[in-house]
Every structure is written in C-alpha cells, then in structure tokens.
Amino acid sequence: MAKRVAVIGAGVSGLSSIKCCLDEDLEPTCFERSDNFGGLWKFSEEPKDGMTRVYKSLVSNVSKEMSCYSDFPFREDYPNFMSHGKFWNYLQEFAEHFGLLKYIQFKTTVCSVTKCPDFSETGQWNVVTETEGKRASAVFDAVMICTGHFLSPHLPLESFPGPS
Fold first, then answer.
1. Is 65 helix (H, G, I), strand (E, B) or coil?
2. Residue 74 sits in which domain range?
3. Beta strands in the chain (DSSP E)
4. Where are the alpha helices (DSSP H) in the chain?
5. How many domains are there within the chain?
6. What CATH number has the domain bearing residue 23?
7. What is the mean pLDDT of the chain?
8. For 108, how many CA atoms within 13 A lie in the half-sphere containing its CB?
9. Which of 9, 27, 37, 87 could form a disulfide with 147 if both were Cys (CB 3.0 to 4.6 A apart)?
10. Which SS3 state, helix, strand or coil, does residue 85 take?
C-alpha cells in the first residue's frame, strides 16, 4: 500500500510536490484553500483570503531557463522574461501534462496538522481540513507544507513615518 502524503498548497511548489510524490509511487492529496492552483501566480483583481498575488503588469525578472521545472521546459515561443499570465499558462500546461489536478482538493483549508498518538511508532500525522463549512480528518504518512513565504504580507508601517 502506497504511503499517503498531504501536500498543503497548490502553487509552484505544491504542483511539483504532487508530481514528485507520484514519481516515487506515493499517494498525494493536495489541499488548496482557493478555487484554483498556481498560488501567487494566479492573477486576481481582488485578492481573496489575504493571499498575496501578482500585480497586473508583472513581468518575471528570472529567465525562463532558470524558472522552469527541470523535466518540463517552457515552450520555445515563450519570451525569456514573461508576464504572469504566460507563467500561469505554463503552470497549467505542467499540471495538465502530468495529470496533477485530480489530486487537488480546492476550497479546502487546513485547520491543523498534529502528530498521531502513535507517532513514535508510525510517524503518521493527523490533518484536519474544512471544506464549505464541513470539517474532515485524515491520517497521512508525511506532510509537505507548500504555502510559500509570501502567504501573509508583513508591512512594518510603524517603522516608516509619513502618510500610510
């Protein structure tokens, strides 16, 4: 029986984590609190749930050769430095090519991750989630936290005098 892995977040790291799990014959379940994958790369006019997003005119400052997945290069016709829309399209192509979307539970918030009572013997984790007001609990052999470091913006406004 394949080991079960909880992947928290379906952005750039979450998508690659799902694929790596599949490559290693593990059974991933990805929990994504929004209604789509791509994390901060999915542009939205109105940011939701306090999530940081790209801005409308963003163009990546990292070349496509340095920002692609090692086993899935950008198409030749993509520009070297691309808009957020092109980058999100690339993520969509990656997810569809490797069949990753079926492993993602959208609109699902992870409420807690705790060691199971028998953790010292099993190494298992209890993951509590909430989807549309309904809570669920599941046991996993491993947990990958792929929420990124831009999840909660920190604005140290008290350190900068002037209008805010």
1. helix
2. 4-159
3. 4-8, 27-31, 104-105, 108-115, 125-131, 134-140, 142-145
4. 12-23, 64-67, 84-97, 119-122
5. 1
6. 3.50.50.60
7. 86
8. 22
9. 9
10. helix
* Phi, psi torsion values for 90, nearest 5 degrees: -60, -45
What token pair was written down for 93?
């192509």
- Tokens 């939205």 belong to residue: 44
- Distance separating alpha carbons of residues 131 and 154, to the nearest angstrom: 27
Does a structural domain hold residue 137? yes
Query: Is 152's pLDDT higher than 80?
Result: no
Q: What pLDDT, in 10s, does the model give residues 75-116? A: 888 888 888 788 889 999 999 999 999 999 999 999 999 999
Separation CA 63–CA 9 (nearest Å): 24
Q: Is residue 112 part of a domain?
A: yes
How big is the CA angle at 96 (ends 48 and 22), to the nearest 5 degrees?
Answer: 100
31 near 146, Cβ under 8 Å?
A: no
Residue 95's contacts (CB-CB under 8 Å, 6 or more residues apart) are 15, 37, 101
Q: What does the alpha-carbon distance between residue 111 and residue 139 come to, in Å, rounded to a whole number?
A: 14
Question: What pLDDT sits at residue 43?
Answer: 61
Structure tokens at 64: 């496509």
